[in-house]
Amino acid sequence: MKKTTYEDNLNYISTKRIKGDRRLIANDKDTYNNQGIYFNFNENVINNTISILIVGSFDKPNPYYGGFYLFNGIYPDNYPFSPPLMKAKTQGDNIRFHPNFYTNGKVCLSILGTWAGPPWSPSQNIGSLSITIRSLFIESPITQEPGWEKCAKIKADMYKRIIGYKNLEIAVYNVVKLSGSSDSIYFPYRTVIEKKFLELYSSYVELIHTYDTYDSKEFVSPIYGMRGYFKPKELLRKFKTLHTELTLQYPAVQVHNSNSNTVMNINSTTEINSTNKSSTIPINITNTKKNHRKSPNDKALIYDVGYIKESENDNKKWIVIETKSGIKRWIRYTPK
Question: How far apart are CA 100 and CA 115, in angstroms?
Answer without folding.
Answer: 9
